Amino acid sequence: MKICVIGGGGAIGGYLAVMLARAGNEVTVVARGTTLAAVKERGLALIMDDQPEPLVAHVKAVEKIADVETPDVIMLAVKAHQVDPIIHDLAAIMGPETVLIPMQNGIPWWYFQKLAGEYQDHSVETVDAGGVAKKAINPNNIIGCVVYPATFTQAPGVIRHVEGNRFPLGELDGKPTERIQKISEVMAAAGFKSPILEDIRSEIWLKLWGNMTFNPISALTHGTLEGICQYPLTKELARNMMAEAQSVAEKLGVTFRVDIERRIAGAEKVGKHKTSMLQDLEAGRSLEIDALLGSAIELGQITQTPTPCLNAVFALTKYLDENVQASKGSLALPSVSGY
Ligand SMILES: NC(=O)C1=CN([C@@H]2O[C@H](COP(=O)(O)OP(=O)(O)OC[C@H]3O[C@@H](n4cnc5c(N)ncnc54)[C@H](OP(=O)(O)O)[C@@H]3O)[C@@H](O)[C@H]2O)C=CC1
Ligand SMILES: CC(C)(CO)C(=O)C(=O)O
Predict the structure, then answer these.
(1) For 68, left (φ over 0), alpha (ψ -120 to 50), or beta?
(2) Measuring from atom 1 of ligand 2, which residue has the nearest CA?
(3) Residue 339 pLDDT exceeds 50
(4) Residue 207 a catalytic site member
(5) Is the CB of 211 within 6 Å of ligand 2?
(6) Per the database record, which ranges form the Ketopantoate reductase N-terminal domain (predicted)?
(7) Burial category of 139 from C-beta neighbours within 10 Å (exposed 0-12, middle 13-18, buried 19 and up)
(8) Which residues lie closer than 8 Å to 88 by C-beta, 6 or more apart?
(9) What's the CA angle centered on 177, arms 175 and 181, to 5 degrees?
């Protein structure tokens, strides 16, 4: 399969690109800066605990999306706030059959597309101001995905896998199409688990439960997943935030297949892992606050659901982000442990 991974030098994109290339797919990554230079020179390397040596893939790497030949599948593996500047370039390389798989955590811009009911075609302003992505991309070309693995960038072009290999997939209307079946098989052949879900939106909320709580709490406290789940006060805060999000999601027809306690226990099991938001903070990069927390608050507003805990954590993390950006990263605290 001809696959383009946009952000293919990043933590999730790099993991996908190496595994898919080694399984025989024709992979092109779009990367930039020192990452692009490293991938061109040495290939992409993936370090996994169960492998004695890093897995290396010499994939084609380009800087401009326009230089990518129309692929069968585009995996969009940039951060949520990095989507808007590239959405038109991305639309331009898509053919009528190209499938776009957005990989971002959080509520995706396409959430209300092809969703029957009261909110059909509503735009999610916090992730897609003015509905730009919604207008640029035909929803028929999109397949939804939830990214469960944890990975991080150890050095330009070098990705470290921490845990997990699940990327559940779902058509926006839940239908079991041939194309989703084929992509799921390609993912499985590359070593991933990509079950096909009828209700991808419920899975998005299940993942988001963790990201909307642990990611900002970790940025505010520098705690790891295990630390936040074991400290009674932050565990209680996460629990309250999840309960608010559950009320919002249930008004939108979402069902949670596990309860809050099990979701927290699952995050605790990941261990002393720093969330991607804490990694971003320590590196002085912008935080994915709008997609992870702002979007849930926005959906709370449209469904008239109070979200006081979400609002409070959102305010603190937004202010933290603005301060870090204003000081060009000098407020970012040094890494507390490990990576
Ligand atoms: N890392 C993780 O464990 C997990 C991440 N996720 C989600 O996956 C998504 C991706 O996260 P992650 O992989 O961690 O992010 P990274 O920052 O590691 O990767 C994104 C990559 O995209 C690159 N990029 C962004 N814009 C462009 C552009 N215009 N042209 C070329 N390259 C570009 C970035 O380059 P640059 O560095 O120069 O900006 C970076 O290399 C996020 O939504 C995140 O929440 C989900 C589950 C787990
Ligand atoms: C840590 C993990 C894997 C789950 O919360 C994640 O999604 C993130 O870091 O953004």
Answers:
(1) beta
(2) 275
(3) no
(4) yes
(5) yes
(6) 6-173
(7) middle
(8) 136
(9) 120
Whether 213 lines ligand 1, by a CB cut-off of 6 Å, is no
Q: Does ipTM surpass 0.95 in this model?
A: yes
Name the burial class of residue 35, with classes exposed (0-12), middle (13-18) and buried (19+) by CB atoms within 10 angstroms of its CB: buried
Q: Which two tokens stand for residue 139?
A: 């929803």
Q: What digits encode the pLDDT tens for the residues 149-195? A: 999 999 999 999 999 999 999 999 999 999 999 999 999 999 999 99
Domains by residue range for the chain, with CATH: 2-198 (3.40.50.720), 201-323 (1.10.1040.10)
Say how many Å lie between the CA of residue 14 and the centre of ligand 1: 9
- 71 CA from centroid of ligand 1 (Å): 20
Catalytic annotation, pick one of 207, 235, 269, 272: 207
Q: Read off the tokens for 104.
A: 């971002």
